[in-house]
Design goal:
With 85 residues, the chain is of the alpha+beta class. It has helices spanning 16-24, 56-63, and strands spanning 2-8, 29-36, 43-52, 67-68, 71-72, 74-77. The chain has a four-stranded antiparallel β-sheet, with helices on one face. It has a two-stranded antiparallel sheet with strand order 4-5. The longest helix is centred in the first third of the chain and has 9 residues, at 16-24. It starts with a strand and ends in an 8-residue tail after the last strand.
């Protein structure tokens, strides 16, 4: 099983690979993605990292409040996506 983690307050220049690299020191990263604006292609400042379910709590504890490129990031378990009306 896997768990998806929300990562907020990312610097604008962080890429999917940068995000995976930052988290890979703490667990095997199965997937990572930075969310970008559809029209401009610019980062929206948050993303998601998918890790093994058994590693999720450890990764949250170790990465929440850490820094990427000088910005303090927020890491917590992602909530399920809500249906759009």
């Amino acid at each position: 099983m896997t768990k998806t983690l929300y990562v907020g307050n990312l610097p604008w220049k962080v890429t999917d690979d940068d995000l995976a690299r930052a988290f890979s020191a703490h667990a095997e990263v199965i997937n990572s993605r930075v969310i970008v604006d559809r029209e401009t292609g610019r980062s929206r400042g948050f993303g998601f990292v998918e890790v093994d379910d058994l590693d999720a709590e450890k990764v949250i504890r170790e990465m929440n409040g850490s820094q990427i490129d000088g910005r303090t990031i927020v890491v917590n378990e992602a909530r399920p996506r809500q249906a759009r009306i």
